[in-house]
Amino acid sequence: MKTGFKRAAAPLALFTLAALLAGCGGDSDSGSKKVTVWMYPVIADPKASSAYWAQIEADFEKAAPGTSLTIEQQPWENRDQKIATAFGGGKGPDVVLLTPDQIPQFSASGAISPVDGALKASVGKFLPAALDAMKQKGKIYGAPIYQTITTTVYNKKLLTAAGVATPPGTWDEIKAAAPKLKKNGVALLDYSASNEASLNLNFYPLLWQAGGSVFAEDGKKAAFNSPEGVEALTFLADLYKAGSVPRSSMTNTNLLADQALGKQQAAMGFSVVLADAELAAKTWGPENVVVGAPLRGPAKEVAFGIPGALSVNAKSGNAAGAEKFLAFMTEPEQVKSLGRASGYFSPRTDVTVPNASPYAKQYQAALADVSPGEPNPAARQLMGLLAPEIQAALAGKKSPKEALDSAAKAADDLLARQR
Q1: What are the structural domains, with CATH classification, of the chain?
Q2: CA distances to 145, 316, 350, 372 from 12, in Å
């Protein structure tokens, strides 16, 4: 069903888009054409989400006369299974919101189509990482409409009490500052080692900072047990052994309020989203929150962040209309309006989303060092194999090399089965 009401009139700018949108896809049928979209709660407040997408329906139909748009709100729960079932049955929506880790699976199976045509007028205006995350074999399979980013957040009160005047922004600075915090009974670096926590938000950034990668270049073997991977896990395990990564990390699931960082028992997080920085300001006091650049390792400075992108069902009955909608949603006005409504950032280099947060500029700057991860059809299954081995290394049951080698063997078997 439709998400809601329509406006009586659309902004003048939308009418100027009509000519552009009419050129997408080449569908000359003058009859009414339907486009159905599966959207997810990227706007946290349900009422605000419904109102926003209802407005998008109305605005798009004004800009693309003859096309009927229906945006269906879907829950995050069981998202992968529901999409796969719909695509597998030759059904599903014309357009669906996907993230980078879903692209390899659905593009390899032929469930989604390349969207290069919908982006031909704007392809050079996106963050390189945002488009790279959506590419498979040189083709773009998702049109980015928003971008997430994480970076470092520090508790100034805890650092100052320990005599640490400058927030540590490199691995070496963390090693130097950690004993000072320990003397005050506080951990320096919070971490999430639970099996339910995404490695994109904990171990993988450290791996990338060391110069390593999760997969070999061809994607057919694991590469995280490289010397760089061992260096990253050794760095983490040594901090844990010294008490500078809290013991509670073993059950942390990337939820700041429930973790040592949120409870002011650790002074630093290195994969923190803007919403959690703002939550910290409410609980610690804004004077105690410092947002820094992404953490720098031995090789580079990098933080995790992903685009959300619209993909087209390969079996859509109205591919031309679907492409028109992708072109519409990636225009600057829609990128700005979605960013304002969701709190996310722009995936375009020529568009900055206005944000009243006092930390927005630091997060915006961190986009220069963003990594979307390493999409692979087996990426999520591989995390399930690696996470317990990281726990084993932290607990001292295995050396970092033993843990990573064990996980790599299981990962290589998994990848071999999927060829």
Answers
A1: 12-145+308-361 (3.40.190.10), 151-304+378-417 (3.40.190.10)
A2: 22, 30, 21, 36
